Amino acid sequence: MLGIGIGIGIGLGRRVPPPPKVTFDLLENGLDFITSAVKIINQKSDNKRMKYALLHLSSGIELILKEILMLHDWRFLFHDIKDARPELIQTGDFESVRFWKAINRLGSECKVRFSEDEKKTLTELKLKRNKIEHFRINETVSSITSLSSRVLNILIRIINEQIDLKKISPLSRKLIKELPRELSGFNSFVTERNRIIKKEYDIQISRGKINLLCPSCLQQKFFIDSALSCIFCNYTNEPEIIASELVKISPEIKMAEKKKCEKCNTIAVIQVGEKDVCLKCINKNGNSV
Ligand SMILES: [Zn+2]
Ligand SMILES: [Zn+2]
Question: Which of 137, 201, 219, 254 sits between 20 and 30 A of 100, alpha carbons compared?
């Protein structure tokens, strides 16, 4: 494995040739598969239908990992880098990087690390997927939902770390934006996610930070602090937009009487309890409430 990493590094050097002009979107396709998997799980399907959740989840994560590889260098899409030619990308007539090689390449070339636990989860996903493809499925609904929960948590981390929402297509942005809502109906995902973020949540609460209902995933995990984001689904936005969204979903939160902040001149002041808080100033200055 080490040999592959070193080989690629030396072979490619630092200069990346410009990407070929193609109009396919791995991320859109990947997100489409993921959304479909979550919908199947949320419909409380039987294990005959649940096999599609696993198949779609597996295809989805594979496409998204390939998108990240492509963001670093389009040649990483090829299983064998020396076969990389722009015209082949256009026709799609090439052997694309296989799953484990993609994982290793992400680590060695793109600094996308996977913990041992995450690798175990991905191994389990691949094993189950192959079983479905080649033999018959013999998995319980609960084992599939539990595995899916763990896979989705890996996916959320990777999207948050690697995908710049400003640089993706409107459809991908829409799919990423809608995913948390779908996920909040997925009970075992919610339990698993809360377990993962518990430590951070407890720290924030012990520091006296205020947490509100998140406009995106509807979990009470949106913290009013400099990050101005939800630790459950990583949602964030412009302070003005967040202010109006928070007011819409929580009856106890109101726009302050003077909506416009005297310091920054932005309409982003909300009333939290007795206090008026400007989300823009908090976001900029890193103050806590
Ligand atoms: Zn959220
Ligand atoms: Zn302000």
Answer: 137
Closest among 191, 148, 150, 175 to 45, alpha carbons compared: 148
Instruction: Tell me the CA–centroid distance for residue 83 and ligand 1, in Å.
Output: 42
What would the pLDDT profile of 58-95 be if each residue is shown by its tens digit? 999 999 999 999 999 999 999 999 999 988 888 888 99
Q: Is 225 left (phi over 0), alpha (psi -120 to 50) or beta?
A: beta
Rounded to the nearest whole angstrom, what is the distance from the C-alpha of residue 99 to the centroid of ligand 1? 30
Is the pLDDT confidence value at 192 over 70?
Answer: yes
Enumerate the domain spans of the chain. 2-193, 207-285
Residue 17 amino acid letter: P
Residue 143: pLDDT band by 50, 70, 90 thresholds? confident
Residue corresponding to tokens 């993921």:
34
**CA angle, 170 as apex, 78 and 40 as ends, to 5°?**
75
User: Ligand 2 centre and the CA of 228: distance in Å?
Assistant: 13
Ligand 1 centroid vs 6 CA: distance in angstroms? 39
